[in-house]
Amino acid sequence: MPSGPGEPQIELTGVRKVFGDSIVAVAGADLTVDDGELFAILGPSGSGKTTVLRMIAGFEQPTAGTIKLGGVDVTALPARRRDVNTVFQEYALFPHMTVAQNVEYGMRVRGVPKGERRSRAAEALEMVRLADYGPRKPAQLSGGQRQRVALARALVGRPKVLLLDEPLGALDLKLREQMQVELKAIQREVGITFVIVTHDQDEALTLCDRLAVFNDGRIEQIGKARDVYENPVNRFVADFVGTSNVLDGDAAEALVGRRGLFAVRPERIAVLPTGAPPAPGSRTVDATVAEVIYAGPTTRVAAVAQVGGQPGVTLTATVLNAAASLPEDLGHGTQITLAWADGAVHDLST
Ligand code: ADP
Ligand code: MG
Question: Where does the sequence pass through the membrane (predicted)?
Fold first, then answer.
């Protein structure tokens, strides 16, 4: 039965992949991606992202578990019988063919008649905003345009699912950020389910509806970008998705008021003149500035708080420069007070 919007398009249940007899690339993944969703798989290098994608595509067979696409168990189906297409980081375009020929290539191999090939390639190039570029050769395009040709080539067969493995990895930062916005817009227009793999947390948060955070072959957390960022479930997620001040032991006791493992985002910490009293529902600690890093829109202040006779806990605060709220003449050695609301503290130990 075909799936519709909001219904599961991809379902992984207990999916494991062991290479050889001891390399556990994926240690049991349970994951559901809805129809029409833009889903990100985020994790450090070697965490099993590509292996998961290759199993969804059918290039790799799971050691255990099942994979369903559109409600149908495809675990035993070869790649060519799955309604899935993949864009790899090394998207090789044929250099001697024009852009249009590159996009038409797959259809030509499958024997799609010329007229239909032409019109579908034109439509796909339109989708990626390269309508006028059909006659050009890849060498006459920028990196971002070549990437969009690769995307058009993958979209032209109108797959139910498009898998993208670090698709923007070869682009420089500025272009990458631009392409992130475009990818999202294109996905929204075509309505195809996208699963995008990235090791870049900004990219994942910018692009996706929901994401899964992978670590060492395991899924640490699945959720909406905002939920994962605002409510990381453990230390790994708190550190990998954004940056966090992680507090445990005596530091937790002194700064949170109880033992455990806690995280506070740097943008939730205010930098105040020394001696500022805590507002209701918030906490303060006196600290000595270690470093002030100006970063254009924000300034990062690292400061050492003296707690419980310890050598000192370094806390990082990120302050918006437009708010102009920093005490004047802030520099190494300045005495300040750091403040945060009780609600900014995430308990990672539960
Ligand atoms: P990622 O894409 O997150 O960087 P991969 O899925 O490529 O991670 O790899 C996960 C783990 O599996 C790594 O330790 C990697 O070395 C191992 N691995 C991946 N493919 C193979 C393979 N074909 N043979 C043996 N080990 C592999
Ligand atoms: Mg990879």
Answer: none
Give me ligand 1 centre to Cα 103, in Å: 30
Query: For 260-276, what is the mean pLDDT?
Result: 93
The amino acid that residue 24 corresponds to is V
Pocket of ligand 1 (CB under 6 A): 19, 23, 25, 43, 45-51
In the prediction, which pLDDT does 317 show?
96
Number of C-beta neighbours around residue 308 at 10 A: 11
Q: What stretch of H or E contains 61?
A: none
- Compute the Cα dihedral for 180, 67, 27, 263 and give only its sign: positive
Domain of 118, CATH number, reads 3.40.50.300
Instruction: Inform me whether the pLDDT recorded for 286 exceeds 70.
Output: yes
Residue 98 and residue 167 in one domain: yes
Give the pLDDT band (50/70/90) at residue 169. Answer: confident
Range of the domain at 208: 8-240
User: Which ligand has an atom closest to residue 18 CA?
Assistant: 1
301 within 8 A of 317, measured Cβ to Cβ = yes
Pocket test for ligand 1, best of 51, 59, 89, 216 (most atoms within 8 A of CB): 51
How many angstroms separate the alpha carbon of residue 51 from the centre of ligand 2? 7
Q: Are 347 and 339 in contact (CB under 8 A)?
A: no
CATH number reported for the structural domain that contains residue 301 in this entry: 2.40.50.100
Averaged over 97-120, what is the pLDDT? 93
Clarify whether residues 232 and 101 are in a common domain: yes
Ligand found nearest the CA of 52:
1
Report the separation in Å between the CA atom of 47 and the middle of ligand 2, taken as the mean of its atom positions. Answer: 8
Give the nearest ligand 1 atom to 52 CA: 6
Reported as a single tens digit per residue, the pLDDT across 315-329 is: 999 999 988 778 878
d(CA 102, CA 121): 9
Whether 15 and 158 map to the same domain: the answer is yes
Ligand 1 atom closest to residue 217's alpha carbon, by position in its atom list: 10
> pTM, whole model, 2 decimals?
0.88
The two structure tokens encoding residue 264: 């506070």
- Indicate the top mutation candidate among 16, 17, 19, 59 to test ligand 1's pocket, ranked by most ligand atoms within 8 A of CB: 19
